[in-house]
Design a protein that fits this description.
The protein is α/β, with parallel strands linked by helices. The chain folds into two domains: 143 residues, Rossmann fold; 113 residues, Rossmann fold. The protein is built from twelve helices and ten strands. It has a six-stranded parallel sheet with strand order 4-3-1-2-9-10, with helices on both faces. A four-stranded parallel sheet has the order 6-5-7-8, sandwiched between helices. β1, α1 and β2 form a beta-alpha-beta unit. The relative contact order is 0.20.
Length: 266
């Protein structure tokens, strides 16, 4: 079982930030990544549709005999994970719980901000997770839908991003938060702009980084972590043409992807 791959799915390319952290934490593990690029974004879809897509994504990854599935999508983690965990026996983890736990450890004044898609924010998943551990913590949320297209257009370092970030985050800044959860896998690429908008006193929690650590701990606990000396390989699959995926993947992964295979029927 130890040499079986880890399965990762997302609605598009943002989940590659999770893959990048997995490669850092567990460089010997093989990874199968599926980006549902034909049906992105999930953040504007209904709960029923998100659940349907999530089930189909899990079923696709099971074809590769994966040992763990990571939902590298905040929207699907918020809405689909509780449902999926009831119907599949394979370990499945999302990005919500690891991010919430890290924010709880980080905060000093008990005031946490969350930014994400409309669906993630509306689900109150981060707030519920935080309050299940510490009901006294105040959680303030804000949806930032323009962040995703800005990142995918490669404008994360452009001046327009600072303007949008200040517009979105000014309200959170006024709440006195000292920690903010980057509740979308695209948002780590906007880390500098978000930091400038909120100021140096606010700590940024990267859910992708925390999820990779959680995955490593889980595999170690259940004895499924690969113990050999190979260099792990990653294979990438998408539900739409690979061209756009390949063109933006480097921004998320930090290196080139030579090939992604299109899956016509998920």
């Amino acid at each position: 079982m130890n040499d079986r791959p880890i399965g990762v799915f997302d609605s598009g390319v943002g989940g590659l930030t999770v893959v990048k952290q997995l490669m850092k934490e567990m460089p010997n593990e093989d990874i199968i990544y599926f980006g549902d690029t034909a049906r992105v974004p999930y953040g504007t879809k209904s709960e029923a549709t998100i659940k349907k897509f999530s089930i189909e994504n899990v079923l696709f990854l099971l074809n590769f005999n994966v040992k763990l599935i990571i939902i590298a999508c905040n929207t699907s983690s918020a809405i689909g994970l509780p449902f999926l965990s009831r119907y599949f026996s394979i370990p499945i983890i999302g990005v919500i719980k690891p991010g919430a736990k890290a924010a709880i450890r980080s905060t000093r004044n008990g005031r946490i901000g969350v930014i994400g898609t409309h669906a993630t924010v509306a689900s109150r998943a981060y707030e519920c997770e935080v309050k299940s551990v510490n009901p006294g913590i105040k959680v303030f949320s804000k949806s930032c839908p323009l962040f995703v297209p800005l990142v995918e257009e490669g404008w994360s370092g452009d001046g327009i991003v600072d303007t949008v970030a200040r517009k979105y985050l000014s309200g959170l800044k006024g709440k006195g938060i000292d920690t903010i959860i980057l509740g979308c896998t695209h948002y780590p690429l906007m880390r500098k702009a978000i930091g400038r908008a909120l100021g140096d006193s606010v700590r940024l929690v990267d859910s992708a980084e925390e999820t990779a650590k959680e995955a490593k701990n889980l595999l170690e606990e259940c004895g499924a972590k690969y113990q050999g000396k190979r260099t792990g390989r990653a294979k990438f699959y998408v539900s739409d043409s690979p061209d756009k995926f390949l063109s933006v993947a480097r921004k998320f992964l930090g290196k080139e992807i030579e090939r992604a295979e299109q899956v016509k029927d998920v």
